[in-house]
Design goal:
This protein has ten helices and 16 strands. The protein is α+β, with helices and mostly antiparallel strands. The chain has three domains: 170 residues, Alpha-Beta Plaits (2-Layer Sandwich), CATH 3.30.70.260; 83 residues, ACT domain (Alpha-Beta Plaits); 112 residues, Gyrase A, domain 2, CATH 3.30.1360. The chain has an eight-stranded antiparallel sheet with strand order 1-2-4-3-11-12-10-9, with helices on one face. An eight-stranded antiparallel sheet has the order 8-5-7-6-15-16-14-13, sandwiched between helices.
Length: 412
């Protein structure tokens, strides 16, 4: 006996401004479902302030209490959440994520060539339009000419899968025209093959000094003063409270995408959450209790596996992203990196937050690139932003680094 399609996701909007809205999800289960749902919620700019997850191994029931904004597109959010949930016909057995399985057909990639007269905040406004239209930026190359024009090359995919149509292309052009006005010179969109996107990024070289510091996957004995990390994180594991599950208890400070970072890590380890509870207390103090099992349905009893999972959770919550300001010859470059899921997806809205930080600081961007880099045994999405210093950098370097970190963590 199934359930109605409309009942898979039910959204009850808050009656008062500032109160949480409630998202209820009732569908077949699969490992990584919580991660996929949290990623969509993060993409729509919502903050999860409380959550309950339970499953019997075949069917799951999830409730998220979220804080949104008057601009939240609830109908579209529901559509995206429903599209992520497994179909009712898959409830006969739980589906564990396997990286070696044949991946689904990748979405078509399009090249958006956008030329415009430059101004401060332009890159963020363009990025905001692409996000609003559900266009995912896969790679970008932004450059500024001596005559104060910008040529932006965005390699994008369309969540709505309509960018091959003239109507959708005109919609994108019209939206960009609305935010740039007469400053827009041209806007062209064309489909490109994978060989074009691969060649467009140029060298994948990253200086060793950067990789050693930014991509260190070991838990430091102590954090250096002034380092850009989250606050202290406590992760404990207990096998005595449940005969069939390992209890993971996490205590930390809230940050943007916190639940996504936890779910993403568990998904990469192929861990199934049987029951979980998440809540934010006073002063953004978070407490998370998760009853988990391995892919074989058993608790984690191997001490080495426990230590590996505990260390990875601590590291991912202390440093969910990596941010650094470095010298690039006479210029200054910002680097931001975030780990890519085993499924190939990266954290949403990172470039949006970076460009918003630059706009708030009234600091220009001379060029920007996004690339994927395999460092160690993990893939990273690396954002490289060359700062427009003009007659001199008016904002201290550490201020830029701090502002970008605050925007990415939602601590503004």
């Amino acid at each position: 006996m199934g359930i109605l399609h409309d009942d898979v996701v039910i959204i009850t909007q808050a009656e008062k401004e500032g109160d949480p809205s409630v998202i209820t999800i009732n569908c077949p289960d699969k490992t990584g479902l919580g991660c996929d749902l949290c990623r969509i919620i993060l993409f729509f700019g919502l903050s999860i302030v409380r959550g309950d997850v339970s499953t019997d191994g075949k069917w799951c029931y999830i409730v998220f209490w979220v804080i949104g904004s008057p601009e939240t597109r609830w109908g579209l959010l529901k559509k995206r959440l429903v599209g992520t949930c497994p179909s009712c016909s898959s409830a006969s057995g739980i589906s564990f994520y396997r990286s070696e399985l044949q991946p689904p057909k990748p979405p078509d990639v399009f090249l958006l060539k956008f030329c415009c007269y430059d101004r401060r905040g332009l890159l963020h406004d363009v990025t905001g339009v692409l996000c609003e239209l559900e266009l995912t930026i896969k790679k970008v190359k932004v450059s500024t000419t001596p005559d104060e024009k910008v040529m932006d090359l965005f390699f994008i995919t369309d969540t709505r899968e309509l960018l091959h149509t003239n109507k959708r292309k005109e919609e994108v052009s019209d939206y960009l025209k609305s935010v740039t006005g007469d400053a827009m010179i041209s806007c062209e969109i064309e489909m490109v093959g994978p060989e074009i996107t691969a060649c467009s990024q140029g060298t994948s070289f990253l200086p060793s000094a950067i990789t050693e510091d930014m991509f260190d996957l070991e838990m430091p004995a102590e954090l250096p003063s002034g380092s850009l990390t989250s606050r202290s994180v406590s992760v404990t594991m207990d096998n005595t409270l449940s005969p069939g599950h390992t209890l993971v208890q996490i205590i930390c400070k809230d940050h943007k995408g916190l639940l996504y970072d936890i779910m993403r890590t568990l998904k990469d380890y192929n861990i199934q959450i049987s029951y979980g509870r998440f809540s934010i207390k006073q002063r953004r103090h978070c407490e998370i209790d998760l009853f988990i099992v391995q892919a074989d349905g058993k608790k984690i009893v191997d001490p080495s596996k426990q230590n590996a999972l505990r260390s990875r959770l601590q590291l991912e919550l202390l440093r969910p992203l990596r941010v650094a300001i470095v010298n690039r010859g006479p210029d200054t470059e910002l680097l931001v990196a975030n780990p890519v899921e085993l499924s190939g997806k990266g954290r949403p809205l990172v470039f949006y937050d970076i460009t918003l930080a630059f706009k708030m600081l009234n600091t220009g961007v001379f060029s920007a690139k996004i690339g994927r880099h395999l460092i160690g045994d993990r893939e990273w999405e690396v954002y490289r932003v060359l700062i427009d210093e003009g007659d001199g950098l008016s904002v201290p370097r550490n201020k830029i680094e701090e502002q970008v970190w605050k925007m990415l963590m939602g601590w503004e």
